[in-house]
Amino acid sequence: MNYPLYIRSAPTENELKFHYMVHTSLDVVDEKISAMGKALVDQRELYLGLLYPTEDYKVYGYVTNSKVKFVMVVDSSNTALRDNEIRSMFRKLHNSYTDVMCNPFYNPGDRIQSRAFDSMVTSMMIQVC
Amino acid sequence: MEAAAGGGCGSGPPLLLSEGEQQCYSELFARCAAAGAAGGGPGSGPPEAARAVPSAATAAAGPVADLFRASQLPAETLHQITELCGAKRVGYFGPTQFYIALKLIAAAQSGLPVRIESIKCELPLPRFLMSKTDAEIRFGNPTELHGTKVQIPYLITEKNTFKRMDDEDKQQETQSPTMSPLASPPSSPPHYQRVPLSHAYGKLRSNTEQMHPAPYEARQPLVQPEGPSSGAPGTKPPRHQASLIRSFSVEREPQDNNSNYPDEPWRITEEQREYYVNQFRSLQPDPSSFISGSVAKNFFTKSKLSIPELSYIWELSDADCDGALTLPEFCAAFHLIVARKNGYPLPEGLPPTLQTEYLQAAFPKPKRECALFDSYSESMPANQQPRDLNRMEKLSVKDMADFPVPTQDVTSDDKQGLKSTVDEALPKDVSEDPATSKDSNSLKARPRSRSYSSTSIEEAMKRGEDPPTPPPRPQKTHSRASSLDLNKVFQPSVPATKSGLLPPPPALPPRPCPSQISHLRVNSKRSAQRRPPTQLPNYGDFRLQKQSEQAPEAEIHPQLNRAPSQAAESSPAKKDIPYSQPPSKPIRRKFRPENPATENQDTSTAVGGPATAAAVKPHAAVQKQSSKQKKAIQTAIRKNKEANAVLARLNSELQQQLKEVHQERIALENQLEQLRPVTVL
């Protein structure tokens, strides 16, 4: 159902907390998807924006047309991150994900083990942190 | 990367380096390479580069020239040495060339003539007077003449790697002494692996080509004119054919005309290129088009590499990430697989020599004739029909040692997909049923497979190819007009011989069959003849329904024939009775109860010998038709009567229930009346 294809945290302590936040945010994503209405599926924007803010973190969501959800948790203190930067990050994630999909040896639903994907995510996280 | 020292001295022209020499030479090479900044160890090059610099670098000409000059040999001698070692030929100083050159220098310094044979002997270390102090120290030590040759580790490693390549170890072992001239520092095991690479590849090279198999054998082309090393090439061709056929692990020949030495294991040689191109063409006739992901996946999965590795190789080679492989991408992927099979760790990034632009530039598309690939061309017909895929599988079975008979699950898909469209007449067992879904997938994925002709499949089967699983029933629904349930009946397992049964005559509902049988039996009684086999189709369905699918008609025939014939024999006068009561005769259980007991008893008692179980004469067919109709009517009447009876019973039961319910209702209303205290006015 809703299991992570890929999950990564930058500072590796408290990883579980991040995992938990991501998991709970899935509900919010689902809510946003359904709230947009069935008729608007085509026009539904992929970028969902800020899902919900907590005191420490902001959670952004993005969902593809195949219902693959990308969730990003960033530190609230990182004010330098603007919306369009988040959008571009999601776009890069999406592109990398499609590259992973193009690999015939990748079975959809498997965990993503693509090194290219890893390196892209790493570079993004380094850039942000 | 130089393989360790070969086995013995004297058989071929091996270059044996003692340990001291090895260290010395590798040091020198490292220095030259480093000095020349020859790109020691490209980022994407083999990791061995990190472990032993000399192996992964080309000694730049400058430092090498300096070194040679420092040996204080006359310029002519140096020229000679350079030529002999092969640097001139390949255009650069690889480790092989360098080591040979050093050895030649040592020989020259010892006063021996500069010739290849000189290298065979144990020589003192070459002496170089160089400005670098350490060089002096090192080179000034000529006293190392260890007799110990590093044979064992190399041979062992070589064996391991050769095993991987599935070639006869013996041949390789015997060949290795002749083909492994250089001893590399024992500390670099990966280099050992490289030797088998080139050796194995050398074996794969054709006699006609006579390209030097390895840098180690760089001498050989030079030597061939001289003739000393004819033994080694001589042994190669016979093995070549066999190993070419067998070995999928074609190793690229290092440094053929390459200037970028550090990428040696990632460089595709001409022969390899040809091989890859041929394989590509077997998958995709148009070399300028591309192979779809699923096709490539099936193909590469045969290499028995793990899926993550294959996934990673794909990631490396599919540069544009479009899910399809163009020819350069395919060659790169193939090459990476080959390298991986031979023990090379996968690079972090696509080596420059494997990149699309490089491959396209280095190897123009036009293919070259290669005697090498005769074996391939035999099994790969020139017609690039989709059945090449089938042949490719056979090819892979035969030709690729590392792609042994493909695993059932992998190629069953292929084969089923390929043959499914053909083999409607060859339904297979139930186990194929789950594969049919795969078939539909594979069919969609490879529309080419639909053009398979049955002949090709049969040919393929006749060739002795062993399909891992026989093709399943291709379609669940026949194009022919036939009832679906019959398909299901036939689907589980109907031997090909029963293909005649496949289309039961649509015009004949199952029911009349028994009547036919009875009628025929009547006829047969009269004529005491067997039913023609043509009756089979009529009885096919119900017979199958009743009995196991394996039950041949013959069983039924005797039974059927037996019964009527017995009845006929026993009661010829009852011809009319059987006729009017067709259900009595057939084995059909439905009708049995309705049969007059006498008839059954007669038949059952009379069942003892098949007696006349001859086929019914064709003339019975004519009578059959009219009787068919009558039987049809009679059976219909019977059915309706039964139905009526059933319905009548049902009706009566329901009426009964209705009455009861009515009565209950009345009773309840009475109670209600009584309970109501005051009647409503």
Automatic annotation (TrEMBL), chain A:
Organism equals: Lynx canadensis
Q: Where in the cell is it found?
A: Cytoplasm, Perinuclear region; Endoplasmic reticulum; Golgi apparatus
**What protein name applies here?**
Trafficking protein particle complex subunit 2-like protein
Q: What's this protein's family per the entry?
A: Belongs to the TRAPP small subunits family. Sedlin subfamily.
What does the entry list under GO cellular component? Answer: endoplasmic reticulum; Golgi apparatus; perinuclear region of cytoplasm
Q: Which SUPFAM superfamilies match?
A: SNARE-like
Q: Which GO terms describe its biological process?
A: endoplasmic reticulum to Golgi vesicle-mediated transport
| One of the Pfam families matching this protein, by short name | Sedlin_N
Which PANTHER family does the entry link to? TRAFFICKING PROTEIN PARTICLE COMPLEX SUBUNIT 2
Q: Which UniProt keywords apply?
A: Cytoplasm, Endoplasmic reticulum, ER-Golgi transport, Golgi apparatus, Transport
TrEMBL record, chain B:
In residue numbers, the region (Disordered) covers: 160-195, 220-240, 401-613
Limits of the EH domain: 21-124, 272-354
Does the keyword section mention Metal-binding?
yes
Keyword Calcium assigned to the entry: answer is: yes
Ranges of Basic and acidic residues compositional bias? 412-431
Keyword line: Calcium, Coiled coil, Metal-binding
PROSITE patterns this protein is in? EF_HAND_1, EF_HAND_2, EH
**Which portions of this protein are annotated as coiled-coil regions?**
633-674
CDD domains (alphabetical): EH (cd00052)
Stretches assigned to the EF-hand domain: 305-340
Protein name, entry field:
RALBP1 associated Eps domain containing 2
Organism of origin is Felis catus (Cat)
